Amino acid sequence: MKVIVTGAAGFIGANLVLRLLKDEPNVKILGIDNVNNYYDVSIKEFRLSEIEKSVKEHPGCSWKFIKGNIADKPLIDKIFAEFQPDVVVNLAAQAGVRYSITNPGAYVESNLIGFYNILEACRHSYDNGTEGVKHLVYASSSSVYGSNKKVPYSTEDKVDKPVSLYAATKKSNELMAHAYSKLYNIPSTGLRFFTVYGPAGRPDMAYFGFTDKLIKGETIEIFNYGNCKRDFTYIDDIVEGVWRVIRKAPEKSVGEDGLPVPPYKVYNIGNSKPEKLLDFVQILQEELVRAGVLPEDYDFEAHKKLVPMQPGDVPVTFADTSALEQDMGFKPSTSLREGLRRFAEWYKWFVE
What we know:
With 352 residues, this protein is an alpha/beta fold. It is globular and about 70 Å long. The model has no long low-confidence stretch (mean pLDDT 95). The protein has one domain (2-197, 233-271, 318-333): 3-Layer(aba) Sandwich (Rossmann fold), CATH 3.40.50. It has helices at residues 11-23, 41-57, 73-83, 99-102, 104-124, 165-184, 206-215, 235-246, 277-290, 322-328, 336-351, and strands at 2-6, 28-33, 62-67, 87-90, 135-141, 188-193, 196-197, 220-222, 229-230, 233-234, 253-254, 260-261, 264-269, 275-276, 304-306.
């Protein structure tokens, strides 16, 4: 199997590459990432170094990394023409809800133009009767649900009222993929990820940022006075879901009009167990003390500040994963304490 993974230096991308090397014999992977400085580049370099180590342990597999931007159409076209992938996993995107409020251009470039380039490259992979891309898997987000009152969130729900540009770009990805699936019969699957966390994760995420600030003796701000609820999903559960989806492309079929029925699916990947932010902070601090990241007598109350909701945020995220369970036979199950314990132990090791 030949796989292109965009965003390969990212949190989910790098962990997916490691999983493919481990469980797909003789896999050939081409990773693309622009390694931008939206957050600390050293974390991205660490992830890439872990991939390099893993490649040496799996001599039948191959890995090539290209530092580049998916918004660079000539580069993407060249990569597809030369590599001729069977599967494309598009995880490259400008991430972050709040950053989209101050830097909208970055989201248009990566999440819209970049994704369009990926879709076009998939389309032209079928030129001249070639077999082409068998499955396009791409990252969507739980943010597409906006302020939907109905929970848990189902992929059957209407999602046309985004509360951030980031969410709007992710919903746009789903619409664009559907159009290309219909027009060009490209099997595509969108994955709505719910608050992904774990070792070597994104430093801009709350659990990582809280830890950095607590170590420095700074105050952490807990939004919506701690009443937000998040469906925290451990990275291994996310990767397990992606890995299963890769191997099961939507089937091609023809409708009564003789035209393709779009081979198109969207799934939630979440833990289906929303946790209050205050409870999350409590578990995080207990695990940081247990791992020796913070001393046992650390005064957490003196370093916590409850503040109002931020623009672009939503009060709750909660995944209905019944479609994923039915089609893929999988439901995320890592408990928040177990996941934060693994993060705290990794953090202790990484900073030392």
